[in-house]
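Hi F.,

I've been meaning to write this up properly since the lab meeting, where we talked about keeping a consistent format for the predictions we share between groups. The idea is simple: the sequence comes first, exactly as it goes in, then the structure tokens exactly as they come out, then a line or two of notes. No screenshots and no reformatting. I'm using this chain as the first example so we have something concrete to point to.
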Amino acid sequence: MAYLISNSCTACGTCLPECASEAISEGDIYKIDPDKCIDCGACADVCPVEAISPA
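Output, unedited:
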């Protein structure tokens, strides 16, 4: 299962360089492409507002 980004996302960009599969896209609230996500959790580990969690 892919990770999800909640509405708590502040679009700070901390997660982007952590994603090895380039599954995260920018926006007012970032999104994770479930087809690209490899469930590694690296993005969730660095999110300062804990907006990323397993689906």
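Notes:
The two ends are 6 Å apart (CA to CA).
Residues 23 and 36 are 5 Å apart (CA to CA).

If this format works for you, I'll send the rest the same way.

G.
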